Amino acid sequence: MTITIYFHQYEEAESAIYTINGNMRRLSIKPAAVIKQGYPPWSISIPMTMKTEIESLAQKMAAATRDIVEKKKLMHIIKHHFLYDEEESQLIAAVAASLISGEIAGVPEVQQLPCLDEHVLHAWRSFFRQPPEEFSFESFVTFRLKHYEHILKNYVECAIDEYKMELEYQMFIDHIRRCVDRQPPAADHVTVVYNGEFILFDSMMQPFTKEQIGGLYEKSLLITKEIDLDERVLGPLVALSPEKISVYTETFDHALLHTIQNIFEEKISLNHLSSLPKKKKRINIRKKS
């Protein structure tokens, strides 16, 4: 049996050929307008002789389908359902792609969504149980992958939420950075040690007292006009606006440390806790249980 698949765009047929030809017999794209009137203008014909080839074709067509339509559909959903302009649509589509690939992880709403690979593969497997001798790729996408587009819309909704949060975060960073830049330094050098909890030290390596931290935090609220500024370390650092900050930690991916880095930029140096100078290590720094 030979299955012929018709495509509206040469690039779509080319993408399918590129994926299918991985470990199947070599195929080629043919002009199809002269083969069957009314069908799209490009076709590929695939000889099928074994069930294993059908399963392989289903897997390859699933991969090709996502390569061909996914970005286009994401952009269409963002532009026409949520009415974003071209520039923001591109940014949101990139976030959506990162959510889909797992590059951005830990979003509860995304973890509840069906697996796109499995969904598209299931559609092709079902289709190839009794495949027609010829069919249009666009028709398959339109009628067999309706729920796929619905899942993509859910990903877009999550991506928009992530995009908005990133914008808000960046606005927060820019605002705090401006506040710091306007402040004359109240300290030359501050050391921050994180080993389960944050401890701040002055230039003489004397720890700031709880009362000092509280006073600095209150000052930071007046400086920034923020009501939910971190009171453990960020608020006091903003109030001090030191010329140099040395951070010692074993946990470099801590979210608050990233925020401090983004605000203070070249003023901050990040160091492993083991590199804390010996005389400084004598200070009782115990890991919080």
TrEMBL record:
Full protein name: Sporulation protein YtxC
Top-rank taxon, per record: Bacteria
Organism in which the protein naturally occurs: Fictibacillus aquaticus
